[in-house]
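Structure in, sequence out. Go:
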């Protein structure tokens, strides 16, 4: 298991003062709610910007990012402390290999997470991935099967490469809306969430631009095309998920190994036994009694009862 000791979150000092102020306010809000630790799980396909997003949140180059290697080879946890608060971010390998869901990678991730609590899932994809397909749905299904449908109540969809020019003459807002709707539909179908349930508890979507070409505002903060400072926006969305009333996900052996087939249907056993007794056993007993009543008594029993004459 790969892990790192807690370190002081010095990377926060690398942000512009305006960003630092916003982040410290968000951390202070969590501390007021008696939340002094936060564990964020980052998942998605390979090459979508998971590790770069981890680095952007921490404000330092913690996760290795290379143009020749698009993802980490095993889960890595980065723990940082600040003013009594501990932030844990878990970077994970890509979930697709050779055009299929990488079940081996999923198994490694689950084992790595054993006895940890997931407070927030960041499901990372690219804004400039124009289409969704069945593979996207299979990835969502694999995450759901691994951690339960409740993981999406703690989920945030993160779309990287936000600094783009939309295709086909679409304006930026329209393109973002269409991309978001398509991806969220796949999440709903892959996670098997009912439409009304999905609408009642919408999964937030945030935009991220990790590259050096990201524009900045007058305060030096990295901004999206609409002028939003995206790092504070992302952390605000994360803290909102933590406070939404849903349960964090504890990864225990039961979750990892899945339901025990021997336990399936156990709750039905009393009902089955009752049915057998009242509708089968009782009927058989009644039929036997009827047969006994209707059955002619043997001669020797009649003689003993004085109802038959003895022959000499």
């Amino acid at each position: 298991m790969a892990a790192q000791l807690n370190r002081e979150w010095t990377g926060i000092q690398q942000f512009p003062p305006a960003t630092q102020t916003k982040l410290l306010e968000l951390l202070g809000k969590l501390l007021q709610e008696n939340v002094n630790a936060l564990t964020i799980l980052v998942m998605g396909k390979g090459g979508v910007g998971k590790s770069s997003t981890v680095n952007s949140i921490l404000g330092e180059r913690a996760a290795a990012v290379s143009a020749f290697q698009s993802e980490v080879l095993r889960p890595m946890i980065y723990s940082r402390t600040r003013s009594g608060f501990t932030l844990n971010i878990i970077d994970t390998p890509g979930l697709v290999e050779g055009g299929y869901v990488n079940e081996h990678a999923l198994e490694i991730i689950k084992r790595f997470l054993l006895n940890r609590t997931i407070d927030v899932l960041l499901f990372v994809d690219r804004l400039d991935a124009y289409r969704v397909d069945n593979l996207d749905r299979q990835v969502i299904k694999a995450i759901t099967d691994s951690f339960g449908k409740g993981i999406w109540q703690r989920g945030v969809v993160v779309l990287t490469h936000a600094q783009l020019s939309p295709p086909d003459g679409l304006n930026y807002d329209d393109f973002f809306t269409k991309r978001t709707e398509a991806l969220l539909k796949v999440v709903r179908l892959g996670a098997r969430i009912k439409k009304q349930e999905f609408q009642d508890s919408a999964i937030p979507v945030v935009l991220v631009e990790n590259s050096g070409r990201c524009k900045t505002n007058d305060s030096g903060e990295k901004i999206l095309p609409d002028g939003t400072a995206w790092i504070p926006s992302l952390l605000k969305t994360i803290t909102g998920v933590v406070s939404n009333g849903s349960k964090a996900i504890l990864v225990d052996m039961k979750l990892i190994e899945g339901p025990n087939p021997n336990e399936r249907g156990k709750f039905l056993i009393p009902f089955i036994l009752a049915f057998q007794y009242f509708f089968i056993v009782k009927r058989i007993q009644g039929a036997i009694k009827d047969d006994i009543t209707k059955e002619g008594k043997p001669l020797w029993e009649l003689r003993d009862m004085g109802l038959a004459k003895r022959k000499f």
